[in-house]
Amino acid sequence: xxxxxxxxxxxxxxxxxxxxxxxxxxxxxxxxxxxxxxxxxxxxxxxxxxxxxxxxxxxxxxxxxxxxxxxxxxxxxxxxxxxxxxx
Amino acid sequence: xxxxxxxxxxxxxxxxxxxxxxxxxxxxxxxxxxxxxxxxxxxxxxxxxxxxxxxxxxxxxxxxxxxxxxxxxxxxxxxxxxxxxxx
Lengths: 87, 87
Fold this sequence. Notes:
Helix content of chain A: 55-70%
Strand content of chain A: under 5%
Structural class of chain A: mainly alpha
Radius of gyration of chain A: 16 Å
Oligomer: homodimer
Distance between the termini of chain A: 34 Å
Number of helices of chain A: 3
Number of strands of chain A: 0
Order of helices and strands of chain A: HHH
């Protein structure tokens, strides 16, 4: 939807926009309405997707590689890793 | 996949993990291999989804409301907003 603008802006400029939206998401999580919260989640995902497009990263492949076979730690779809481990 | 652990951790604790992953993504954008970059994108999306689950936000609805009819500014699927405007 915004590909030409995004490429012109580049990864660095686009990352700044992502950070701004992440800040707005934090704010909405504290005191936003459900509608505002949905809007901020959508914006963060939009900017993340934008950066992936500019950096030529296939997000579907990325998710499949990392989580397509379940938790990378225990390989289960309902994680049973010890709680002291990272996630 | 991690819902029980996520709920126990809460939004605030989970947001901290998201921020750590965002930092790793920034690093990978600078000097990561394509594989590392895909891994970091997957992790950011995973933590973002986790926060949405804990906050009971429907991400599909969120994206549809905000971007389902095209750019919120110009309503086109290829944005034609003036470049001086926000995105």
